[in-house]
Structure formats: structure tokens, C-alpha cells
Design goal:
- By secondary structure, this protein is of the alpha/beta class.
- 31% of the residues lie in helices and 26% in strands.
- The protein has 8 helices and 16 strands.
- It has a 6-stranded parallel beta sheet with strand order 2-1-5-6-7-8, sandwiched between helices.
- The longest helix is centred in the N-terminal third of the chain and has 17 residues.
- It is globular, with a radius of gyration of 20 Å.
């Protein structure tokens, strides 16, 4: 069975690492914009009978949505037997209920959008909160890989005297798992959010942190306000500069520069989104999950 990966430009390096593990060929996917802002997508043509997976991290989903659809539809036009999506970062997971009157509940709507183009989906640590399983949101076969083992290994190798700190209650699912695997203590702080950029984080208990390197772990850092506030509290407690470990380094606008200005010892992230802080590769995890999906690939009927 022949497999091909079609990476969007920012995922080419990750795809090069994954392809040998999948016994897959790397194919061509070019994407550019016309002067009027419309997208032009061009892909490999020789796809007859091939199982294809697009590789795209959805950090800017509104910008990527139509190019994704164009590429998937064109792959089918060129004879692809099945078309999957490897999205290391999966967007539109937070708006999973109507928080205020009139709001669109975008998480299931985006799921329906992707289902129309893809036969299966692989992603890493999606932001599951009110939806405990990704399969409860998506009706196509899905696999989510857990980054905790990789992060735990990195921490043991690089920070053997760490204490893990989750900046809010939502982070506990990742922090507790990583701490257990690495054999480190952890604390989870409480957070009060007054607005997109107005966040107050409670003081942790200092006793367990004495003589240890604080490590702030969070799944998504977008505005960076929570991490910045947490760093400030730890500094005021007299603790050494903390290391920030981020699963999905979204870093909107100048959030990364603002975070660095707060004085962390280091900012480390996975390569779910390409970023200068990348230090932990997800290639092996994503490839293993994708092998299973390729092997089970069965294109759905389309009229």
C-alpha cells in the first residue's frame, strides 16, 4: 500500500522526520496568495490509489480552512484512495458551549467542516475540557496522542530537581500526568480571568518548592498572560527563575517577547507549532498514530 504525506509549508520539517517512520513519500503541496488575498493551492498529481495525509498545524485556522479544503478535494480528484489530516495542533476546541447569548458553538461546527474533507484525523493533546474524548466531537476516526511521556523524559534529562506547576485547574490533567511519569511533585494554582489579557493567579504553597526548579506547564499559551502572572508570583516568593514548558506554542502577537521579558530561565515547547522554542519533537508519536489510521483507512462514500 502506497502512502504519501502532503505538508503545508510550515510543517515540512516535521513531515520529513515522520515520512520514514510511515514508509511514506513526501509529496508536493504549494500554497500562495493572489494579490486579492485568495489562495492558490497546488499538489502532487500522481495520487491514483494512494492513501494521502495532509499535514497542517491549525494555529491560524481561519486562514488555513479553505486551503485545507482545496487540497483535500484536489487530492481526491487526482485519485487518492483516502485523505487524512495530521494536525499537531487542533484549533476550535475551546468554544464547546455557548458562554453568552447568540454565540456560535464553534467546536462542533469546525468538526463538521473537517469531516466533510477528511477520512480520519490525528492530533496531539487537543484542548479537551467539557468534551472528555475527541471521538465525542468528531464522527470520523480520530487519534489523539499524549505528549506527557515525551515531556516527562525531557524534564528527567534536563531538570532532575524540578517541581511542576500548573497555572490553572484546566492544566491539572497534563501537569499531574507528566509529574507522575517523571516522578516529580506538582502544584496547581487557581486562576481568575477578568478578560482576555487580565488574569490573576493565586500564590502557591512555597514549602514544596523550596530547593527545586519551578517548571510551569501549560497546554496552550496564546496571550501568555497566565504564564507571565505565574512567573511574577514565583519571583516574588523568592523562587529561582522558572522554566516554562508549553505543549502548543500559539504565542499570539508579541506574547513570546512579553513572556521572555518576564525573565523565565527558559521557554521550551513541542513542535506541534513551529517556533524558536521548539525542543521536543512529536514526529514519532504522530507517525505511530498515523500508521494505525493509514492501515484502517477506508474512504467514505461520497455522492
Amino acid at each position: 500500500m502506497t502512502r504519501m504525506l502532503l505538508p503545508f509549508p510550515l510543517q515540512r520539517r516535521l513531515t520529513e522526520a515522520m515520512a520514514p517512520m510511515l514508509a511514506a513519500r513526501n509529496g508536493r503541496l504549494d500554497w500562495r496568495h493572489f494579490p486579492d488575498g485568495e489562495s492558490l493551492v497546488a499538489i502532487e498529481e500522481d495520487l491514483d490509489g494512494i492513501d494521502v495525509a495532509l499535514v497542517a498545524s491549525l494555529r491560524k485556522p481561519d486562514e488555513l480552512a479553505l486551503p485545507l479544503r482545496f487540497a483535500a478535494a484536489t487530492a481526491r480528484e487526482f485519485g487518492a484512495r483516502s485523505v487524512g489530516l495530521i494536525a499537531p495542533y487542533l484549533a476550535y476546541m475551546r468554544q464547546d458551549k455557548r458562554f453568552n447569548p447568540g454565540e456560535a458553538v464553534s467546536a462542533p461546527l469546525f468538526a463538521r467542516f473537517l469531516e466533510e474533507s477528511f477520512d480520519w484525523l490525528v492530533t496531539a493533546d487537543p484542548h479537551l475540557h467539557r468534551n472528555p474524548e475527541l471521538s465525542g466531537l468528531y464522527r470520523i476516526p480520530v487519534r489523539r496522542v499524549a505528549t506527557a511521556p515525551l515531556i516527562a523524559d525531557w524534564l528527567r534529562d534536563n531538570l532532575p530537581n524540578a517541581i511542576l506547576i500548573g497555572p490553572d485547574s484546566e492544566s491539572e490533567q497534563w501537569v499531574s500526568d507528566i509529574a507522575k511519569r517523571a516522578g516529580f511533585p506538582y502544584q496547581v494554582l487557581t486562576k481568575t480571568r477578568r478578560g482576555d489579557r487580565d488574569v490573576e493567579v493565586s500564590l502557591p504553597s512555597i514549602d514544596a518548592a523550596v530547593s527545586r526548579t519551578p517548571v510551569i506547564v501549560d497546554d496552550i499559551v496564546s496571550s501568555g498572560r497566565t504564564s507571565i502572572e505565574t512567573l511574577g508570583h514565583l519571583r516574588r516568593l523568592g523562587l529561582p527563575p522558572a522554566v516554562c514548558v508549553v505543549i502548543h506554542p500559539v504565542f499570539a502577537q508579541n506574547a513570546y517577547e512579553q513572556l521572555l521579558a518576564t525573565g523565565p530561565a527558559r521557554v521550551v515547547s513541542t513542535d506541534s507549532i513551529p517556533h524558536p522554542s521548539n525542543a521536543i519533537s512529536l514526529a514519532g508519536l504522530l507517525a505511530q498514530a498515523s500508521i494505525e489510521m493509514f492501515e484502517d483507512a477506508s474512504p467514505k462514500e461520497r455522492s
